[in-house]
Structure formats: C-alpha cells, structure tokens
Amino acid sequence: MASGFSAWTSLRPHFLSALRAMTGLLLLQHGTTKFLSFPPTQMSGASDPISLASGSLELVGGALIVIGLFTRPVAFILSGFTAVAYFMAHAPSSFYPIVNQGELAILYCFAFLYLSAAGAGPWSLDAIIRKKS
User: How far is the C-alpha of 63 from the C-alpha of 94, rounded, in Å?
Assistant: First the structure.
C-alpha cells in the first residue's frame, strides 16, 4: 500500500518549495496592504508604530520567503513574529483560537518553524546559490 505513494515521495522537495512560496505570498499581502494599500483592506495605510513594524516584517520577510532567499533565518524570525502576534492580538480575547480568530497566526507560526528547519526547497534562490558555491 505504501508503494502507491512512492511517486509522491520524489515530489516532496517541490511541494516544500510550493509551500514556502505560497506561505510567503500570503504573508506578503499583509505587508502590501499596510504599506501600499493593495489590496485595500481595513489595515490599509496603517500608521501606528506596531503596524509599521509588523508591516515591515511582513513585506520584507514575505518577499524573501517567496523568492527563497535566506529562508531558514527569515522563517525562524517570522515564526517568532507570528507567535508574538498571536499572543498580543488574539490570545487576550479568548483561550480558544477558533473564538479569538488566531488560527491563521498559529498556522503561520508552525509553517515558518517548519521552513526554518526544512529549508527553501529546490525552487529557490537559496538552492541556486548553494549550487554555485
């Protein structure tokens, strides 16, 4: 039964690259809405210091994750950032993530923690740089 999944095993590195790129794109949109007002949301044009700091991490960190550059250290920083975001913005209102709407922050935290351990995958600038050196 396990042999039916052996083809999927060979695709694992490519799925890792896809997970990295999509996670980065989803985080990146938080930064673009804060700094570029695109797409327009209720967070657009944020000017308070916490939103500017978080927007910077989302914009720069998200872009680096998308292209797969410095993936491990950036993902580690973003994992901590999203954990702090959860505890600051969501946890105070309820213990339960489904109630405090913190599921996305928790999912980001663990996705970035995984990427910090697993790396960028073959479709990344990290892989290109590694091949050249």
Answer: 32
